[in-house]
Amino acid sequence: MPDVAEGINLSGKLSHENSDLNNLKFIGPLTRFKKRNLSKKHDLLVVLSGPEPQRSLLEEKLRIELAEFKGSILFVKGLVEAEQKKATQNNFTFYNYMEAEELEIAIQESDYIICRSGYSSIMDLAFLGAKAFLIPTPGQFEQEYLAKKLKKEGSVPSCAQHKFTLDKLQKIDIYTGFRTYNYNQNWAELFACFQSK
């Protein structure tokens, strides 16, 4: 399982419920990203994703709520199109999408991140030690559960999509942020069970 076995973990009951599996192994959080020593360029990064119409509804909501934000906003719409497009408007810089490496850099160059609370996003943010605000996709119960779990533990703030307001971003610094997780895995030991005898 991509999480830690004991203590404060990322997935809660999604992977830590009592199980009859006696060969279950936790391999630590997985991420496609690597840490870089980058200076901050953006005050806020917004990363949208997920199904329509919820992606568009959140984009519209955030454009309105963040209009009075004092600082630079890098806004990735999550629209995969034939070519990447960039536009600026006031303190917003909009991209229709970013490739994985561009997103990896953007997260590390941003003070705060607003994104969905999908498990892969949470693992990426935890690995990078990002300060985030989570907005689960309505009706996606895994995302809603993970956002509530992290909020209840005091790690990362979140709210329902329709309840987001600009002042909620002030809560980010009140929360502890993601804990440090062990990302060093002995892959040879882990996959030894697949070796022939």
SSE ordering: HEHEEEHEHEHH
Estimated structural class: alpha/beta
β-strand number: 6
Work out the strand percent: 5-15%
Radius of gyration: 18 Å
Major sheet: arrangement of strands: 3-4-2-1-5-6
Instruction: Summarize the main sheet.
Output: 6 strands, mixed
Query: What helical percentage do the residues reach?
Result: 25-40%
Unreliable residue stretches:
12-16
- Give the integer mean of the pLDDT values: 84
Distance between the termini: 25 Å
Description:
The protein has helices spanning 13-16, 54-65, 100-108, 119-128, 141-152, 187-190; strands at 42-47, 73-76, 86-89, 92-95, 110-115, 132-134. The chain has 197 residues and is α/β, with parallel strands linked by helices. The longest helix has 12 residues, at 54-65. The protein starts with 12 loop residues before the first helix and ends in a 7-residue tail after the last helix.
Task: Describe the structure in brief.
This protein has 197 residues and is an alpha/beta fold. 26% of the residues lie in helices and 14% in strands. It has a six-stranded mixed β-sheet.
Write the layout of secondary structure elements.
Blueprint: H1 13-16, E1 42-47, H2 54-65, E2 73-76, E3 86-89, E4 92-95, H3 100-108, E5 110-115, H4 119-128, E6 132-134, H5 141-152, H6 187-190
Parallel strand pairs: 1-2, 1-5, 2-4, 5-6
Antiparallel strand pairs: 3-4
